[in-house]
Amino acid sequence: MNLEEKVKKVEHIFDGVVVDLDVETVELPNGKTAKREIIRHQGAVAVIAITSENKMVFIRQWRAPLGQETLEVPAGKIEPNEDPSITAMRELNEETRFEADKMEFLNSFYTSPGFADEKMYLYHAINLKPVTNKLPQDEDEFLELVELSLPEVEVEISKGTICDSKTLISILYWKMMQ
Amino acid sequence: MNLEEKVKKVEHIFDGVVVDLDVETVELPNGKTAKREIIRHQGAVAVIAITSENKMVFIRQWRAPLGQETLEVPAGKIEPNEDPSITAMRELNEETRFEADKMEFLNSFYTSPGFADEKMYLYHAINLKPVTNKLPQDEDEFLELVELSLPEVEVEISKGTICDSKTLISILYWKMMQ
């Protein structure tokens, strides 16, 4: 069965800093039309960073959409024309002051394909160590670094502080590395 | 450190069927203000459904934001005041014509906490079997049912057909159940 929806019209609703919003009118396989609300995002990376003490590195930050603090793996948006592995190395430096010998690509995935095109590239930072050349940090970004063992991770999941898809995927990969 | 951002103003940009968009003006911990673009979503469920032949049940569908077909685990939006386990049973029936003795809750997570409040509840369908009472299907929803073994799943991941966060999390849980 051909499932394709043909785009008939695109209405640009919003151009933001992080997201844009389009409403598309599409033709369904049965010839009828429907509306699709689509969030456009430039894509992002997430990094599994494990210390020599076998702890995972997390960022504590405020998440406005949730109205709460979370613990998430280091992550950030891909700049235009930036290779995702470079983004991963840069964000790890900026957010955690760690660097790695290399970034091993594990997987990529769309975070919410029903309404958004955000694609997330997941890397494993190989041979983690303190940075020698500190990249400048955003003065309006408020972060705290937290290192947790696997049992401590389980506690934070049950408390709801660790609560997002990229971080859960990272932890599941980490478990499989044990 | 107190990381909280205090909401000073909310501007409603868009009220849609699937998403709403707000732009919030927030006060940062250092007293400065910033804008936050926030997608509001009613939340959703995803279901790990494993057949008696040890295959995972997937839905093939067109995803407008990606402009491609995907294979995803059965999933759907939570209706107002609906218990997520009821949503899970309903969506499994509507999308796959399977039902389960019960829905075991595995985890919940925010799909993209940087810009969206969508919360996903993940269930494992216990004792999968064909439905006895078929719930009505949406005539404008075009789906195909696909059952895959774990090696077949790995092929679809490498081809990029299996490519979203809830489905990847489901597969990682399934691997740990083997």
Explain this structure to me?
- Two copies of one chain form a homodimer.
- With 178 residues, chain A is an alpha+beta fold.
- Chain A folds into two domains: 6-40; 44-177, Nucleoside Triphosphate Pyrophosphohydrolase (Alpha-Beta Complex), CATH 3.90.79.
- Chain A contains three helices and twelve strands.
- Chain A has a four-stranded mixed sheet, sandwiched between helices.
- The relative contact order of chain A is 0.19.
- At the A-B interface, strand 1, strand 2, strand 3, strand 5 and strand 6 of A face strand 1, strand 2, strand 3, strand 5 and strand 6 of B.
Short description:
Two copies of one chain form a homodimer. By secondary structure, chain A is of the alpha+beta class. Helix content of chain A is 20%, strand content 41%.
Q: Kindly provide the radius of gyration of chain A, computed on alpha-carbon positions and rounded to a whole number of angstroms.
A: 19 Å
Main sheet strand line-up of chain A: 7-4-10-9
Structure class of chain A: alpha+beta
Taken together, the total number of domains of chain A comes to 2
What is the makeup of the main sheet of chain A? Answer: 4 strands, mixed
Based on Cα principal axes, name the global outline of chain A. elongated
Q: How many β-strand runs of chain A?
A: 12
The name of the CATH topology of the largest domain in chain A is Nucleoside Triphosphate Pyrophosphohydrolase
Largest interface: A-B, 65 and 67 residues
**What CATH architecture of the largest domain in chain A do you see?**
Alpha-Beta Complex
